[in-house]
Design brief:
2 strands; two-stranded antiparallel sheet; globular; 279 residues
Length: 279
């Protein structure tokens, strides 16, 4: 039985996608942006896009902790299958849409194909990727899903010690990458899992210790927008060019294609859920 939707999770997703899309619009048209430095310059650095991704990670961790139960090792393969089906069908469909909307002639080599199929473009030293620079997030979230069963186990037993440990792991990972000039990698503090595990873990933590707003999301509109946030993230980059024509038109076309992608993805998930239930 599915649990009730929490309002704060959907709101965080909605705020997150607004921040990310706006940051990419600002970067595309080279407008002046607001930058924020917190605690340690170059180690903990936030702009609107980085903050938006952090909110996504936080909401993802909280959503998993609320809706996922891993009681024994036999539950882990089922968890991985469900998570991969959550990401990859929508992601692969978004690749097709991005190719359709691309304004350049794409000539993919073998490495480009591997980057696109797996979503691990940043791990292959190509942060911006051959098609969509927002796709780097796929490799990060997949890696965090892979370590979630370990995090779940640790949070069940030592929640306070675990979140403190994750904070220092993330902090020291960022320091190491910056001190050694990123080891030749492109922006690893954004995509390397140990650098981002604290934001993800913090979402898990607040659910495990029952320290979060228990307000149920009763707004159909906010639930719908929360559902669309991931799909809007996947498809927004090639659509940004429409902003210059009319911002309102950009929002409409983004919501339209995110809705189409969401509906198609739900049909795929429904099909696979039926097949898995038979087995």
């Amino acid at each position: 039985m599915a649990k009730e939707r929490l309002l704060f999770i959907d709101l965080l997703k909605l705020i997150g996608i607004i921040l990310v899309v706006w940051e990419h619009i600002v970067a595309t048209y080279q407008w002046k942006n607001f930058l924020f430095y917190i605690i340690i310059p170059k180690v903990i650095f936030l702009d609107m896009g980085v903050l938006g991704v952090a909110l996504f990670l936080f909401a993802s961790g909280a959503s998993l902790a609320q809706n996922t139960k891993i009681n024994n090792i036999g539950d882990i393969p089922k968890f991985y299958i469900k998570r991969f089906l959550r990401i990859y069908p929508a992601y692969w469909t978004a690749i097709i849409l991005c190719i359709v909307f691309s304004s350049t002639l794409l000539q993919f080599n073998f490495r480009n194909c591997i980057e696109l199929i797996t979503g691990f473009q940043a791990y292959l030293a190509d942060f911006n990727g051959p098609l969509n620079y927002a796709f780097w997030f796929i490799g990060l979230i997949i890696c965090l899903y892979l370590i979630y069963p370990i995090l779940d186990y640790l949070f069940k037993r030592k929640p306070h010690l675990t979140i403190i440990s994750l904070f220092f792991i993330s902090l020291f990972s960022r320091i190491i990458f910056n001190e050694f000039n990123n080891f030749g990698m492109d922006r690893p503090v954004e995509w390397f899992p140990l650098c981002r595990v604290f934001e993800f873990g913090l979402g898990i933590y607040i659910i495990k210790i029952d320290f979060y707003p228990h307000i149920v999301n009763q707004s159909a509109l906010i639930r719908w927008l929360g559902n669309l946030s991931f799909y809007a993230y996947l498809i927004h980059v090639p659509l940004i060019k429409y902003w210059v024509y009319n911002p309102f038109f950009f929002v409409i076309i983004l919501m339209l294609f995110a809705s189409m992608l969401y509906s198609f993805d739900m049909q795929i998930k429904k099909y696979y859920s039926t097949q898995l239930a038979k087995h």
